């Protein structure tokens, strides 16, 4: 018998070219309706999304309109309140400036047309001169120191050496860390020591003196007056009997309240503020001239403050036996600048 070789043959029937073309056309037909339905669904979604826009706009319009109505109502209410005469706040007044009616001025002495201006823009625009009980207007025009019979003699000004004067001045102005200055007494007599004591107190107001023995020598020790005893009784031990107990003077000050000025003076003089008296307090934001009285402080000590203080001047010194009292004045003379 002959052997026969068997080859595997595929069971599928081969497609012709026409069959392939027909299959592709069928696929196209199936896909195209899907695309159409997809487009239709997108369009339907777009229409659904577009439809709510109209009512939203209408709602927004409805919301805006009430707001406008509310604003109109508020304006009408404000107009009504203005017509009713409701008072403005201080901030509103300051926007357009204060008028006469704002501060209660309703009538005028003169009939001419008024004018506007700025009051006290600078402290120098407001100058006050005190008028005393006798009608005299206070002016600062004399810086001299009064001299009486019990003032120090000429020898008082020559007993100290230039070196001692330099050291005492530095101590007085607190320019160094020394708390005292020792001056040796060459001729140890009571008269000599008295002259040195008078010289230190007269030439350097604010300093006190005492006598000490050191290594068998006599020294005059100068130091700043301090302590309760010195503050309570300022210079009481050396005050002449023939001199008035109160030193009256004219105080010129700039941009300072009267009490602030008194506190500054008492601090530099190392005394309590209650030994000062005056007839009235003056404005802070101004240039003021007034009379002040102080108990048992010499004119020399007060005049020395003109070298130490700024925006203060003291002068027209005199000694009297009485202090000043509040209200003992006729009034004040004002010089006002309007800008």
TrEMBL record:
<dbReference type="InterPro" id="IPR042214">
    <property type="entry name" value="TruD_catalytic"/>
</dbReference>
<feature type="compositionally biased region" description="Acidic residues">
    <location>
        <begin position="69"/>
        <end position="89"/>
    </location>
</feature>
<protein>
    <submittedName>
        <fullName>PUS7 synthase</fullName>
    </submittedName>
</protein>
<dbReference type="GO" id="GO:0005634">
    <property type="term" value="C:nucleus"/>
</dbReference>
<keyword id="KW-0819">tRNA processing</keyword>
<dbReference type="GO" id="GO:0009982">
    <property type="term" value="F:pseudouridine synthase activity"/>
</dbReference>
<feature type="region of interest" description="Disordered">
    <location>
        <begin position="1"/>
        <end position="89"/>
    </location>
</feature>
<dbReference type="InterPro" id="IPR020103">
    <property type="entry name" value="PsdUridine_synth_cat_dom_sf"/>
</dbReference>
<feature type="compositionally biased region" description="Basic and acidic residues">
    <location>
        <begin position="14"/>
        <end position="28"/>
    </location>
</feature>
<dbReference type="InterPro" id="IPR001656">
    <property type="entry name" value="PsdUridine_synth_TruD"/>
</dbReference>
<feature type="compositionally biased region" description="Basic and acidic residues">
    <location>
        <begin position="51"/>
        <end position="62"/>
    </location>
</feature>
<dbReference type="GO" id="GO:0001522">
    <property type="term" value="P:pseudouridine synthesis"/>
</dbReference>
<dbReference type="InterPro" id="IPR020119">
    <property type="entry name" value="PsdUridine_synth_TruD_CS"/>
</dbReference>
<dbReference type="GO" id="GO:0008033">
    <property type="term" value="P:tRNA processing"/>
</dbReference>
<dbReference type="GO" id="GO:0003723">
    <property type="term" value="F:RNA binding"/>
</dbReference>
<dbReference type="Pfam" id="PF01142">
    <property type="entry name" value="TruD"/>
</dbReference>
